[in-house]
């Protein structure tokens, strides 16, 4: 019923996400709100998050696509650009948003962020500091967290 | 002698000290250098750090043929193998030892990495039959050793460098120059004996031809010393007698090809090792080639014929002068004129030719010159009588008896160096030629007559003649024998029944006609109209649903297809298995508009050349379009040897021609003379009358005057363009900006047709001040518009982006993900809906490009072209331009006479515009342009010919280029001048040709005082320029002058 006044762009994107999902990413709209998506991202290989399955939520605000979608990690993750509430520090979700971006591109960017943490632009100071002082140790922690919280079970 | 022999004992002493890492050869060389002083040799080895260690891995491929032990020493008649470095002690070595020679020496030679030795010792009876004894020869070797000696009768072994130009690490300074030389100079072939090591080198000419052959195991060589001075010193001559064997395996499947490859000769090379080797061996062919490279060189031809010198200049001018502009305009612009073409290829004096009556199944009268063509074509197809042809050696090939006792015969192509044991008969020669009659003489109908007279299936050559009681038919019948008979004779002659390849895996088919897509319908129609029903079955092989089964294709007497189809079926691998055109051996292949294949490297040219056919024809009114090279591709298709080999063509025709050597052109003329028939409308028959009489054609130029409003608009546009052009002149970058200049000129030329053509495409900024003038022009009309003339982006730019979009997915706005609505282009070449883009901006005047984040402002946006290419409502705002008015006036005058007209323009947009006044004035018309597919074209042409209500055909100049017969019309209006009058002429010839019964009126529109008028002047000037020889620099200057003329 919500879909009746859903912009065609959102319907189209949803259809494409379902019919041709991006590798390592799944996003499906909620039954009761077509603007709310349940998202799963697989930890990229050769990253500390490898083997992990990360749950996220994604919400398309009223202004979408003129405004960025709101995305948050639900699975606990040890990452300098993601805080303990799961909020993500990613420019395209903020000032660098462009209406030419889509749900798919946003999720791919997040997946890329997992592969390339950026402690210089941190959201979580502590983790970023950890990352900068002792990267190997931080990576170990990230792996540990992945095992603990994102092992799919 | 005493010091030079390296004893096995010394060798083993050294080895025991230096260890197994060093090759025997290294040790031998060290010993040699040290004058057999063991201690010194050891020092040399240890002092040479870079000395290569033994490569335990085998060098090259190992040849493990079973080796039978033979006691007889040098049994030359038997085969041998190459002993490789790491081979275990073989029978050969055993034998060598048993012969008391230093086997290790031989071994050591083969052990060195950059060489391999021919070891005559490794004989094997089982491989003997693979090697055919070619013959003996003598060569004068050159000693490279000092103090050694050898005796007559001594066996010599040869040491061939393995790789040309292989850079082997320097073996170190301590190590004899012989080796160093071998490393740097890889063309040197050395010989040695087992006893003494290296003796000398063989002459270069031998080395040059032996090397590639031996390297590829095509040839093997045995040698003995025939005479040597008692004690050798450097540069002494040593006479060697050699015996050469050829590996029979090279004559098996695809061998000829590999042999050719083995020569390392690129296509450019005319050096072929095998023929050279044969010559060095003193073999003389028992059957000589009738036609040899020597003939070509020796035929001196007179220089300095003035007329031809200017022709030379014409073609050179064309060649050197092709600016890198990507539009077709320049292509056509540079095409040569018909007159020049006639001079180059010559016009047949057809009066000498006999005539042949067509069979009665051809339901139309042939003119005398067409009957002559029929006779000529039949003659060429017949060639020599089959019987004779099959047993006559192809003139480019020579036959050699080998010295082998099996009485073998080898055939060598003196031009390509190919060798074969199959008899190359004249059957492989070209049967066919180039029918190059000028346009409008009826090449199609002559070809149809040929199809009727002589048809059959490929390969079988059991041609059936139509039931014509012709004097010819009997003879022609004689020419055909059944193929088994022929092949029997051929094989008997060559004596190689066993190895004879069975080529007849292809299905035999009838005649294949390949034409441009536009002519498909015409061929079909002409065959259907002119051929008695039932006498020729026809199949059009075209479209997605075409049948690819060879069995279907061969069921029809005639298959018609397009160049595109041939190229696409060619690119499919294993076309033979897939059926289709390439799985058939055609009785005959005819290329219509054969200049289509002029670029020899194009897919289409290669594709048609790959077709298997017994007879080949090229139909073209323009055998040379831009360059002499165009002919090469035709000759290759026709199998006119040796000109199908680029190397020969290039060496004897192309290069001399380009260098201004008259002989190049003369040679082309003599090549073409027997295989080409060309007549023009001006050709005369025996009685000196023109072979064809057409109703007169009147060409008239209609000069138009711009109206005041038009003039203002034109002047403004002209000033603007001139400023730009002058900038280019100032910067001296005219030729670099050729494309931009052509674009400027294009606008001006279009403006002469109708200002709307320019208004719809001026870019916003540059032409903004033209808006006022545009408005003024529009106001001149009755229904003066309220609205402003919307401005649109540069069309070229849009096209580029639109083209890009087309290549990718279907265009979709990246914001709404829908098809574009009111699409705009950003300066960064991204395409979005205008509304989506503006909505994404906070500020209404500027923002970021959503795709690339570049800052852009609203006025940078370009409006993409819509369905209608005009940005204004041209119907509502319709205004006649002076040219349109003049045309309408002409058409009104013709209306009562109901004589039909064709209106040509280069711009389909102008055709769009013309439709408005035509509709308003009740002039019923049809339209033909490049957007129509074949069926639509046929429909349009049929309607125009048959519907008496339709008086006008709107046609784009390019669409009307080839083959179309438009004799229903007797008036042609050429709305805009083309750079090259020849193109105009060609289009107009569509109406002035056989079948035209009425007087023809051709009217060309020129607007006074504009670029059009100056184009006329340039055209005239071009004619003058073509006839004078100009250097590159002069041509450049001339070209700039030309452009300057246009901007005055």
TrEMBL record, chain A:
<keyword id="KW-0067">ATP-binding</keyword>
<protein>
    <recommendedName>
        <fullName>E2 ubiquitin-conjugating enzyme</fullName>
        <ecNumber>2.3.2.23</ecNumber>
    </recommendedName>
</protein>
<keyword id="KW-0833">Ubl conjugation pathway</keyword>
<dbReference type="InterPro" id="IPR000608">
    <property type="entry name" value="UBC"/>
</dbReference>
<comment type="subunit">
    <text>Interacts with yeast and human Mms2, with the RING domain of RGLG2 and with UEV1A, UEV1B, UEV1C and UEV1D.</text>
</comment>
<dbReference type="GO" id="GO:0005524">
    <property type="term" value="F:ATP binding"/>
</dbReference>
<dbReference type="GO" id="GO:0061631">
    <property type="term" value="F:ubiquitin conjugating enzyme activity"/>
</dbReference>
<comment type="similarity">
    <text>Belongs to the ubiquitin-conjugating enzyme family.</text>
</comment>
<dbReference type="InterPro" id="IPR016135">
    <property type="entry name" value="UBQ-conjugating_enzyme/RWD"/>
</dbReference>
<keyword id="KW-0547">Nucleotide-binding</keyword>
<dbReference type="Pfam" id="PF00179">
    <property type="entry name" value="UQ_con"/>
</dbReference>
<keyword id="KW-0808">Transferase</keyword>
<feature type="domain" description="UBC core">
    <location>
        <begin position="5"/>
        <end position="151"/>
    </location>
</feature>
<dbReference type="InterPro" id="IPR023313">
    <property type="entry name" value="UBQ-conjugating_AS"/>
</dbReference>
<comment type="function">
    <text>Catalyzes the synthesis of non-canonical poly-ubiquitin chains that are linked through 'Lys-63'. This type of poly-ubiquitination does not lead to protein degradation by the proteasome. Mediates transcriptional activation of target genes. Required for postreplication repair of UV-damaged DNA and for adapting root developmental programs to suboptimal availability of iron.</text>
</comment>
<feature type="active site" description="Glycyl thioester intermediate">
    <location>
        <position position="89"/>
    </location>
</feature>
UniProtKB/TrEMBL annotation, chain B:
<keyword id="KW-0862">Zinc</keyword>
<keyword id="KW-0067">ATP-binding</keyword>
<feature type="domain" description="Helicase C-terminal">
    <location>
        <begin position="883"/>
        <end position="1048"/>
    </location>
</feature>
<dbReference type="InterPro" id="IPR000330">
    <property type="entry name" value="SNF2_N"/>
</dbReference>
<dbReference type="GO" id="GO:0005524">
    <property type="term" value="F:ATP binding"/>
</dbReference>
<dbReference type="InterPro" id="IPR038718">
    <property type="entry name" value="SNF2-like_sf"/>
</dbReference>
<keyword id="KW-0863">Zinc-finger</keyword>
<dbReference type="InterPro" id="IPR027417">
    <property type="entry name" value="P-loop_NTPase"/>
</dbReference>
<dbReference type="Pfam" id="PF24559">
    <property type="entry name" value="UBA_RAD5A"/>
</dbReference>
<feature type="region of interest" description="Disordered">
    <location>
        <begin position="62"/>
        <end position="104"/>
    </location>
</feature>
<feature type="region of interest" description="Disordered">
    <location>
        <begin position="462"/>
        <end position="486"/>
    </location>
</feature>
<dbReference type="InterPro" id="IPR014001">
    <property type="entry name" value="Helicase_ATP-bd"/>
</dbReference>
<dbReference type="InterPro" id="IPR014905">
    <property type="entry name" value="HIRAN"/>
</dbReference>
<dbReference type="GO" id="GO:0008270">
    <property type="term" value="F:zinc ion binding"/>
</dbReference>
<dbReference type="GO" id="GO:0140096">
    <property type="term" value="F:catalytic activity, acting on a protein"/>
</dbReference>
<dbReference type="GO" id="GO:0003676">
    <property type="term" value="F:nucleic acid binding"/>
</dbReference>
<keyword id="KW-0227">DNA damage</keyword>
<feature type="domain" description="RING-type">
    <location>
        <begin position="813"/>
        <end position="853"/>
    </location>
</feature>
<keyword id="KW-0539">Nucleus</keyword>
<dbReference type="GO" id="GO:0016818">
    <property type="term" value="F:hydrolase activity, acting on acid anhydrides, in phosphorus-containing anhydrides"/>
</dbReference>
<dbReference type="InterPro" id="IPR001650">
    <property type="entry name" value="Helicase_C-like"/>
</dbReference>
<keyword id="KW-0234">DNA repair</keyword>
